[in-house]
Structure formats: structure tokens, C-alpha cells
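ingest -> fold -> write
write: protein_1
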Amino acid sequence: MRRRLSSTSKLAGPAPVQAVLFGALLSFVLTSGTASAQVATVREIVDLLVTNQSVQTGDFVKDRAAAEAASAALGQALLVSLTTLPTGASSAGFTYRFNPSLGTLERTTTNFGPSFVERAVTSGKGRVAFGTTWQYASFTRLDDRRLRDEGLVTTANRFVDEADAFDVERLTLALRSQIVTGSATVGVTDRLDVAVLVPFVWLDLDGTRTDTYRGSSFLQAQATATSSGFGDVAVRAKYHFFDRGGARLAAAGEVVLPTGREEDLLGAGRGATRVMAIASFEREFVGVHANMGLGFGGVSDEITYAAALTVAPAPRVTVAAEFTGRHLADIGRISEIAAPHPLITGVETVRLSAGALGMDVVNAGGSFKWNVGGAWLVRASVLMPGTSAGLTSRARTTVGIDYAFGQ
């Protein structure tokens, strides 16, 4: 893991000599403390971006509590969003069952299924499937607030009898994630699958905070963080208990282990369990799939829901339209609140805060699977945000490859 931190001072207009000297001294201290900078976590760097003041803006007294509240709200929002990114389905593309009349295995479906929505059919006894996916996202908004361009207003101060703030602090963030997930699915019986998903995460964050005080802009802090490591590992089991005329039902359970570092936004920090009902209807080359589940622990208790339509236009190709959603019961979207300044009468501070509990994160898109030969599957998908909640990117791209073998 690599983390780099820097802070710079630059004035857009003239400033007192004391301010320049203070900023230079603080910049020297921050950039000279190599050991402490290298051990800073991503959460600590977010806190520095929001709370550090390397250049004094006149004689105005900052509301420290407002900055700390904004930092806590921002850090929690980033953690929630990064740990609730859609993960791939553990259902294998190739599924088989034993036909006693023929004395051999036969394919149970004519398509390879969706990429993110689980389907009810299981792999078949003794079948093993391995897969690897790479997912990339570049985030541009947080709860419908721009992270780039004009940036996110973290705190602002205004006189109670004036509409416009005289002191506004803006944070611009460039945030990118790459997730490589390895998965393995084993058919324990014809009706029971067990799977494990192991994500490895790379996270890049570049941030700049600027304070505009009475029309003059002051560059307060800059920081760059790059962290990498294992995310939260998931172990899943699925039992296929009903199959009649193309209609199939299954139940699934999942245990998520807190293997990712919460302080670097790689994991939720505590374990979670989920249960899910899965329904599928497949005929010829068309399939319809629906999921409904409950989750407990992690960053929040949740309700999950998903649906997919799969079509196999050719024997080796399957395309799907997919929809996934999560209702996070214990998390609220970022909101702005105003409170009286603790030290100055007649001034109020606008700060970021967690809003009312309950947030829906929705994604929709399409996926493609191609049997390139033998039991090899190549897949690709693009997901788009369906709501403005949480971190959103214009598109989230996933590519991967699967291989299946067994009896």
C-alpha cells in the first residue's frame, strides 16, 4: 500500500505577511514529516482536507466543530458507497444435471445467465467454476453534489441577516476505484452450490480544498492517497429447491468477513450476513430472474432487490439487461444544516451532515457473455447509476473470464 500526502499554500490575492509565514511554516512541517505522512490512512487524509487551514483568511475564527462534522459525514459517505459497489453473481455460466435415462450429464439451461443478478439453477454435483473480474469506476458526484469542477461545499459562514456566505470552503475530489475479484463456485450436490468471492481493491484519491473569503481565494490543502488491499471476502451458499416447467426457486445465504481495512475505505469494518430468495423462469433462449434479500451488519442493515432479462441470440452468446438496488436502512444522504457559530454572535455556519436515515442505491445496465471455446466464458458489462444517492460515476465497467470443469 502507498499513501502520499502534501499540503501547499497559495494566495489568489494579497495576504498579510503573517499569513504567508504561517502557511509556509505549516507546509514545511507537513511535508517534512515523512514518517507520519506515510502512515496516514485515507480517512485521516480526508479529515486533513476538510479541517486543515494552512493559510489564515483575515482574522475570522473558524468553526472547528463544523469542519469536524463535515469530515465525519464525508468519510462515512465515502465508506458506505465504496463498500456497497455491486459485486458479480456467483452463479456459474455452465450448469449441468445428471439425466438417468441417458446415463450422462446434460446442460440445464441454454444461456449463461446474468452477471450481477443471481439465478436459481445450480452448477451440478462435482462441477467447479473459477472466475476473475476487473471493475473500474471514476466517481464524479456524491449525493448529487459535484466532486470536481466547482467542488463540494464542506462548510460556509454567513451573517444571519444575509443570504450569501462571506466565507466558503470547497473541496474537489478525484476518486477512482479498481476492483479485481476472484471467485470459485463448487457444486456440492445437484441442488447445492457453495461459492467464495475475494476482492482486491485499488483506491486513488486526489483532493484540493480552497477557501473563498470575502472574494479572495486561498488554497488551503492538497492531498493524494493511494491505497490497496483485500476488500471484504464473501462466502455464499445457494440451494435450488423447486424446478418445474422452466420455473425455478432457490434460497441463498451469504456471510461477509471484515477483511478489508475500514480506515482506508477498503472494507465495512464489521461482518455481515445476508439471506436471499431467488426466482427464475427460463424457456428456450430467454430467461427472467428476480432476487429479494435482507442483510444485517456491515455498514448498514439493508434490503436488496434485483432483476434481469437474459437472451441467447446464438448458442455461444448471452446478453442481459440487469437492475440492482439496495435500501440502506441506517445510512442517510449528505445534507446541509445551519447552526449558530460557537464564538461569533450573528454568524451561522453551514456544514455537511448525515441526513434522514434510509437511502436507495440503484444501478442498471447491460452485460454480455461469450463462450470463446470449451468451457471458457468471457464477459463484459456496463452499469449506470439509477439514482443520485451515494458515489456515482457516469459508467461502471466490468470485464472478466470464467472457466468451468468437473464430472
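write: protein_2
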Amino acid sequence: RAEPLLADAGHHVTAMIRNPQQQEDVKAAGATPLVLDIEHATREQLVDAFTGMDAIVWSAGAGGGTTAERTYAVDRDAAIRTVDAAQSAGVSRFLLVSYFGAGPDHGVAPDDSFYAYAEAKAEADQHLKNSDLDWTIVAPSSLTDDAGTGSIRTKEQGATGESVSRDDVAAVLAAALDTPSTSRRMIEFDQGDTPI
């Protein structure tokens, strides 16, 4: 969903995918596909892939219902490896998709199926915050497939973590990439009435 927005804004977008069958969809969205499995890619492979790029938008994830091991492998380990590779490749701008309420004090019980994801995101987010990168963490509430509204409400404006459309998350990513005031900020948000 973010690819056409970024392309329309004048960015040359490279979309990393692990399934070669998605290449035509990526091209149709205005991006260039790069087949590379983020879960198993080495830091060196990532540095090679990132060299010459201006920014990284990390929205990869193991997805719900996977094993804790795979969640840690993608949402924590691959994300951390990507941050390190971006620094080595000289990419200064980094946007990472997290979730509303993420952090070391997430409050998710260890016996909850969401625990591995919460822990993985807390560690990945903190690793990015500790880096020298020009970072922004985009942290939406529960995602819906509703049509985007073009408006959100941030936590500072009273958002409570209800829900937000995937379209609006993509719009936040596209807007944040080119908005210097989002640098070194975690933007937690749900649906609202403030134009993105």
C-alpha cells in the first residue's frame, strides 16, 4: 500500500520480497522488486542491497500465529540486522513499523501468544533508537482493511489504541519519510480527524 504513494511522491522504490511470484504485483505498484529473504539474509547481503539507497522503510514481520522462534527471527533479529546494515551501507533515514503500546513496559504476560511479538518489537525499536540513524517509528493501533480516511489521532492527541486502516498507515509512512519533524520520534496513532 505504501509503494504507490512513495512512487507518486517521486521516490524510486525498491521492495524487498521473499516470494518471486510477487514481483509483478510490486511492479504494478510502481516499485522495483528485489527478491531477498529478510529472515535469512546476512548482514553483508543487506549492506549490498542497501548501498546507494537514501532510506529504509521496514514493514516486514513474521505475521500473526507463527512460532515464537520465527517471530524473534524476523521481528527482532532481522530488524536489528537491517538497522546495522543500513548504518554500514551509509543509509541515514530509517522508518520502522511497530505497534501502539510497544516498548519494554508493554505489559504483555509471558503466557500470552502476543508476548514474543511484544518482546521482539521492544528490542528492535530500542536498537533503532540507540543507533545513529535518522529514525522514525510508526506505531499504529490495530489494523483494519477499511478504506483510508487520510486522518489520524496521535497518542499525544488522545489516541487510545483502538484501530486504524492499513491505507492510513501507508499514508503515514509516506508522509513521515519526507517530514523532518518526525525524526527521532515514535508516532503512536489510531483513526482520528487530524489530516495526516
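write: annotation protein_2
The first strand starts at residue 14 and ends at 17.
The chain has a mean pLDDT of 96.
pipeline exit 0
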